[in-house]
Every structure is written in C-alpha cells, then in structure tokens.
Design brief:
Strand content: 5-15%
Largest sheet: 3 strands, antiparallel
Radius of gyration: 21 Å
CATH architecture: Alpha/alpha barrel
CATH superfamily: Glycoside hydrolase 144 (GH144)
CATH topology: Glycosyltransferase
CATH class: Mainly Alpha
Helix content: 40-55%
Number of helices: 14
Order of helices and strands: HHEHHEEEHHEHHEEEHEEHHEEEEHHHE
Number of domains: 1
C-alpha cells in the first residue's frame, strides 16, 4: 500500500514534531528492538540465532551469536518486553537444539545448518569444534543457569550439563596452550593457538573454571599472555593502553568476553580491565576525531571501529591504523561500549537513531559509511546485535554481569588465574 503524498507529508511532520526521546527512552527503544533479532527473528526450527538476516548459505545458525542471544533473551524477559515464561521457553528450545547438535569433544562447531542440524564449515578446515565460539555459548549458558536455578531447576541443570561436557583440557593437545579448532576430518590442522589480548579471554577463564575438564594457570600464562600483541603500554592520543595491539584493535575485543565477565574493578596485578577497555574505546573516539584519512562524517558523534559488514569488501575489521579502516563505522562498536563511555556512546546512539535509514526493525543496521552511496549497510549480524543488547542492559542494570559472576566456579577460576576485584 502506497501513502498518498499529502498523507505521507503529514506523517513526517508528526514525527518531526514529536517530543525528543530522553536518553533512557532511547536506550529502551534500541534494546527492545535489538533483542527482537533473537526472539522474533530467531531460527524457527532450533530457536538459535541466525548468523545474519540475509545469508547466501541458507538457514545457518551461529553458536557464538546464540550465546549472546541467550543473554539478550534473559534481558528482554527481565525488562518485561515479554513474559518470563516466554523467555524460559525460548531458552529451553535453544538448549534442546544444543543437546542434539553434533559436538567435538564437547565443543560445538562455529555454524550449523538448521535444516540438517549438521555443522556448516566456516572455512575449509574449520568443520568441527570451535572452542572460542563454544566459550561464547557457555558464557550464555552459565548466565541462563543462574537465572533459572530458583524456579526452573531441570532446565538449569541441562544448561549445567552442557557446560560440563566441554573438554577444555583436551583442546590443549597435552601442551601448555589451548587450540582453537579440531576437526574429525583434519584433526588440529589449523594449528591455531589461542593467544591474546583479544576477544578470547573468556575462553581461558571458562577453561580454568571448568568443574569437569579444567586447564592450569600455566596454560594461560604460557599461551594467552605470551604473544606479540599482549602487553602494550604505549600512549595513543595521550591515552595509555596497557594491553593489546596498535591502537587497541577492533572494539569487539572489549565486548565479547565481557558480556558476562564483569570488567568493573577486574584486575590481575598489571591491568585494570575496565580502565583498559575504556582506554581502548576512547582511543577509537580520538582517532575518529583526528580522522587522519579525512573520511566523511567522523567525529564525536560518529566513531567506533570493529568487524562488521562493509560497503566495499563485504566484511572486515575496520581496525584503525590499517587499510581496513575505510570510512565505515560499525554501530555495535560505540553502542556496546556504553558501559565504558556512557556519555560519548550516547552521542553516537542519538546520531545514528536520527540518521535516515540507520535504525531498522531489529535495531541499528550493521554499518554506516557517510562517504558511500548508500550510506547505510542495511544488514544484521547476530554477533553484532548481541553485544549491543547485552551491554545496554549491563549499563542499565548490570543484569548479565550479576548472573554470570554469581556462578561459584567462575569466582574460583578467576582466582586460579590470578584475577581479583578492586573495591
């Protein structure tokens, strides 16, 4: 149905004259819409999160994105966007699917075809267990277990059993490192040691915390902390960065591990992780304001660089200081950083909300590039929508942090690795 020009003009006038949303109203609108990606748009067969809204590979669901989505579903129920029982039913559907998917020494694959329930290869040799994606899922399962344990004991125990089934120690190959991938067809051919500092910190935290298949602190020290991009200590735009690569790397490093793992006051004797992530975020903002390549639109209300879809090359990291930084800003970068930079992130959120076409039925689209026509890359990806929903809720209430951190084995695992909380 087409609106007549006079009716359309009246509608636009009404919108332009409507009262401006408060910050809280705007955050609520963004959170509610974004959670819809994991409820209204969830895969109908499995309840798991679709990898993206338009996937040329078919009905592909993502394990890591579903872990983020499980946390988003909890947030939506606690916000009253739908009844708690609906949230419980959605988690039960996801858990049932996870119980029936093929696992690889307890780890799930990166992707599955929801029609066949078989692993779908992420790359040629990545057709089996993906330990990092599994960690993102387990982060969600532990939060769900804690949420469910008072009145849905059976489902909470099923979440717990899935967590116990991951053979973290087997993925060391008997060495002092965790390895990312294992395949029935290619064994450990990818030979990818998990090293930091990046999004994989949660993998070592969970592996050390496991009640059934734990790793040692020596493994964490020898592998994760033993890389050329772990310690930094340089200043960028007058902001010191204790850990990470040049200019910090893509901002999802600040998000994926910290959706459940509370960074506030988290220390290890060298680094305060909240301050480290805040510095990383502010460096991105400063980089955009400096705008060394002269891209259109960058500024205090448009910044934040992370892996997302892209109008030029399809998908890339957009990492400042590299060729991937091409004028594209990914909304998930600043939105998910609201826990670290609330005032600075709100400026971006409001600018994006008022930008024509940037906000869709499931929240902000995946990327914008003011120097490109069209400006908006109108796609959705689960791994970008999930952190937005969860971190907005953590900013508003700390809900997912409280749930995950209430797990006793997580507290023990952090202590084992040498982490502690400053008051």
């Amino acid at each position: 149905m087409r609106f007549r020009p006079i009716i359309l003009a009246a509608l636009l006038a009404a919108v332009s004259c409507s009262p401006r949303l408060t910050d809280e109203q705007l955050l609520d609108r963004v959170e509610r819409a974004t959670i819809g990606y994991f409820t209204e748009f969830a895969d109908s067969a499995t309840g798991l999160a679709r990898e993206r809204d338009r996937d040329r590979n078919g009905d592909i669901v993502t394990i890591g994105g579903s872990g983020f989505g499980m946390m988003a579903v909890i947030a939506g129920a606690e916000r009253g966007y739908y009844p708690r029982e609906e949230g419980v039913q959605r988690i039960e559907k996801m858990v049932s699917s996870l119980e029936n998917l093929e696992r690889f020494h307890g780890a799930w694959a990166h992707w599955y075809d929801s029609k066949t329930m078989q692993p779908f290869s992420f790359s040629k040799y990545d057709d089996g267990g993906d330990l990092v994606e599994t960690a993102f899922m387990v982060q969600g399962l532990i939060a769900a277990r804690q949420w469910l344990e008072k009145d849905n004991i059976d489902l909470a125990e099923r979440c717990h059993d899935l967590w116990l089934g991951v053979e973290w120690d087997w993925y060391t190959r008997g060495t002092d490192s965790l390895y990312w991938h294992w395949s029935k067809n290619y064994d450990f051919k990818m030979n990818h040691r998990i090293k930091g500092f990046d999004e994989t910190l949660i993998t070592y935290v969970l592996a050390a915390s496991s009640p059934s298949h734990p790793i040692s602190r020596e493994c964490y020290e020898a592998s994760y902390k033993n890389s050329s991009y772990y310690y930094n200590g340089k200043e960028y735009y007058g902001i010191e960065l204790p850990l990470g690569m040049e200019l910090g790397g893509p901002l999802f490093f600040c998000h994926y591990s910290f959706l459940g793992l509370d960074p506030r006051g988290l220390c290890d004797g060298h680094t305060n992780y909240f301050e480290r992530n805040k510095a990383h975020t502010l460096i991105h903002r400063a980089y955009a304001m400096d705008n060394p390549k002269g891209h259109k639109g960058y500024g205090e209300d448009l910044w934040g660089f992370t892996s997302s879809d892209d109008p030029y090359v399809g998908y890339c990291s957009h990492h400042p200081g590299t060729d991937d930084e091409n004028g594209t800003v990914s909304p998930t970068a600043a939105v998910s950083s609201i826990v670290y930079t609330p005032e600075e992130s709100m400026k971006v959120i409001r600018n994006l909300y008022e930008m024509p076409g940037a906000f869709g039925p499931y929240g902000f689209y995946d990327a914008v590039n003011p120097g490109h026509d069209p400006v908006v890359v109108d796609h959705y990806l689960a791994i970008d929508q999930g952190p937005e929903a969860v971190m907005i809720e953590n900013y508003r209430s700390g809900l997912l942090w409280k749930l995950f951190m209430s797990a006793p084995e997580i507290q023990a695992g952090l202590e084992k690795l040498g982490f502690y909380y400053e008051n």
